[in-house]
Write a structure and sequence with these properties.
Oligomer: single chain
Helix content: over 70%
Distance between the termini: 37 Å
Structural class: mainly alpha
Number of helices: 11
Low-confidence stretches: none
Largest sheet: none
Shape: globular
Radius of gyration: 23 Å
Length: 273
């Protein structure tokens, strides 16, 4: 009896928080399907469904070009930060060298410094070497910013691998390079996919770096397209909501296909440190 009551309470609490989490999404979708003449900043349900808002938002927001730029930047950041995080996480987790702890904690400072504090100095540094208004002005800072978390994440996972497995591999003649790429990387698939998805989401949704670093129209990323629906005195709420849905859709689709690995990676990577 107590077990059923506890289970009911658990479902009640989880359902309550699920409603809180889904309520803003419901508001955005509802506004995206509302006629532009009826749209407002408050939550309202459409009298009829206007799917044409997505077509209008796609063209007015220039999302055909901006999505391509977002894809180029995001995939590059995920690959670059992923490879560097694997190498750095392996070194911090399994190798003994002077200053290892100090270097690791210095690296973790990257988790604590907000991008608002870095974007202006980075702009002048990148302008000095001629990289502003290029994809590199987005890829390099965001890969560096993601590297602190990614290295911490992979180090935590590698430290959770049984030492006997690594010792057995070395007895069989495997060197450090083989241990990493033939043993550790294949068994760390859930952690890698979770890390890749988090970096993908952060990079895809980033607004500040593209706003400051990019001025050429064709190099802008998808979140900047939302600015077309926000004027100084007016806002097109239905088109803005439709545009926000378009921008968020790739992340939602990616999570839909990787949710099992994502949950597995979150559970395995979060409790081993």
């Amino acid at each position: 009896m107590n077990l059923r009551r506890d289970s009911a309470i658990n479902y009640l609490i989880l359902g309550f928080f699920a409603v809180i989490a889904l309520f803003p999404l419901l508001g955005v979708l509802s506004s995206a399907l509302t006629s532009p003449s009826e749209s407002s900043a408050s939550l309202s349900f459409p009298s009829s469904l206007h799917f044409s808002n997505f077509v209008t938002a796609w063209h007015q927001g220039h999302f055909s070009e901006y999505m391509r730029s977002s894809a180029i930047v995001t995939v590059s950041v995920v690959v670059l930060s992923g490879v560097l995080a694997i190498l750095a996480g392996y070194a911090f987790a399994t190798m003994e060298f002077r200053g290892r702890s100090v270097l690791f904690y210095v690296l973790l400072l990257g988790l604590m410094v907000p991008e608002e504090a870095l974007v202006i100095p980075l702009y002048f540094d990148l302008r000095g070497v001629g990289l502003t208004d290029t994809y590199w002005a987005l890829i390099l800072p965001q890969a560096a910013q993601s590297l602190a978390f990614s290295t911490f994440w992979m180090r935590t996972f590698f430290r959770g691998v049984p030492g006997s497995l690594l010792e057995a591999a070395r007895i069989d003649g495997a060197n450090s390079w083989s241990v990493l790429w033939r043993i550790l990387v294949p068994i760390s698939r859930p952690a890698l996919l979770t890390m890749a998805m988090l970096v993908f989401m952060w990079t895809w949704n980033d607004f500040l770096f593209p706003l400051v670093m990019i001025s050429t129209e064709k190099l802008r990323t998808a979140p900047l397209g939302l600015a077309f629906f926000q004027g100084q005195h007016t806002s097109q709420f239905s088109l803005l909501a439709a545009g926000a849905t378009i921008v968020a859709l790739p992340v939602v689709v990616l999570y839909f296909f990787l949710q099992r690995h994502f949950i597995s990676g979150m559970l395995s990577g979060a409790v081993k440190e």
